[in-house]
DNA sequence: TCCCTAGGTTCATTGAACGAACCTAGGAGT
DNA sequence: ACTCCTAGGTTCGTTCAATGAACCTAGGGA
């Protein structure tokens, strides 16, 4: 975002959220973290995002308390980025915006979401019509009618799976 | 957003929403439209946004079906921008993100929101804990503890008022 | 005649996004 | 012993959106 990613003169909570989440690519990174993507190269392959931008976004999300960087292997040192509790709480926002997009912009959704316990499709709020509020970890993602990207990470997401369950792409 | 405001290679609904709503300032324009701001100069005064950017965002939101441009006076010709039904349906997204920001980033909210009928504070989803789903027009906005901007448009928003009710700033 | 208002447009400057190239350290293959 | 591969980045020149000050236009009011 050119010349100032901040909104200094604003008085609302939304502007503070947008300083952290409103930059290009940022919310897509969070969405894919909810889908189970954890590693730098997996984000990069799935999003086709310039590495320098991805690096910046991961740092900012980590500093902002949305992600946590963890070493998952000592030698050679390798890292993954996990959503914090605050990050997981962005699920309703991401889902509501996706539903809005499908309703008002159009396009077939490549992935659908239901309550894992009762298999009921979620309301736009992310709640289950039968059971009420649903934790993000109890949401099951399964393939929808829309076209899907063809890369190893996206392919690994085609099996029905819960949110936050780590994506393990097959090696090429 | 530099070099491409689009996300062409993406397969998700969210990326299509972000092509329309994800640029700098855009969601703040929608938020203020929900708060009752309708006129070019009122958006400009309240947001301190460069006029060229505001002009671009209003055109894009209008083309995208979020706003509708209407002439409210013939001579001299004057215009206002009203939210469409699709635009009003962004209220839960805007509200959920504001609540997230207050919970996880902090800061006092300058405005609070309750169900106008029963005066109960809304859930983060925008629903009323007592009555269930609430239409945006039945949400009442009232001043909260946080600091407020001091401009004629922001001052006009300090009286308790329903969402979408037109803001009428006092002339300076 | 002059100024004011609403609703913009024009333009030079700045700095974020892009993407290709490069880097580093540890295994793995031959 | 040497080379390749992988994960996880960094560097850097190019492109283009954001900024803000100046300007524009048409009608009304003093």
UniProtKB/TrEMBL annotation, chains A, B:
Protein name: DNA-binding HxlR family transcriptional regulator
Gene3D superfamilies: Winged helix-like DNA-binding domain superfamily/Winged helix DNA-binding domain
Keyword Transcription regulation tagged: yes
Disordered: annotated segments: 138-172
GO molecular function, one term: DNA binding
Pfam families membership: HxlR
InterPro entries reported for this sequence: HTH_HxlR, WH-like_DNA-bd_sf, WH_DNA-bd_sf
SUPFAM superfamilies registered for this protein in UniProt: Winged helix' DNA-binding domain
Domain HTH hxlR-type: 12-109
Keywords of this entry: DNA-binding, Transcription, Transcription regulation
Record organism: Glycomyces lechevalierae
């Amino acid at each position: 975002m050119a010349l100032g990613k901040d909104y200094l003169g604003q008085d609302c909570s939304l502007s503070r959220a947008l300083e952290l989440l409103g930059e290009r690519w940022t919310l897509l990174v969070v969405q894919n973290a909810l889908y189970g993507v954890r590693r730098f190269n997996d984000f990069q392959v799935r999003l086709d995002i310039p590495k320098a931008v991805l690096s910046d976004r991961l740092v900012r999300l980590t500093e902002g308390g949305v992600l946590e960087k963890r070493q998952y292997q000592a030698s050679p040192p390798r890292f993954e980025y996990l959503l914090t509790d605050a990050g997981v709480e962005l699920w309703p926002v991401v889902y509501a915006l996706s539903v809005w997009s499908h309703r008002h912009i159009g396009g077939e959704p490549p992935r659908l979401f239901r309550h894992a316990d009762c298999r009921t499709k979620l309301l736009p709020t992310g709640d289950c019509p039968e059971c009420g509020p649903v934790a993000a970890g109890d949401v099951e993602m399964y393939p929808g009618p829309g076209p899907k990207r063809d890369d190893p990470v996206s392919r690994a997401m085609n099996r029905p799976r819960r949110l936050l369950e780590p994506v393990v792409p097959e090696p090429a």
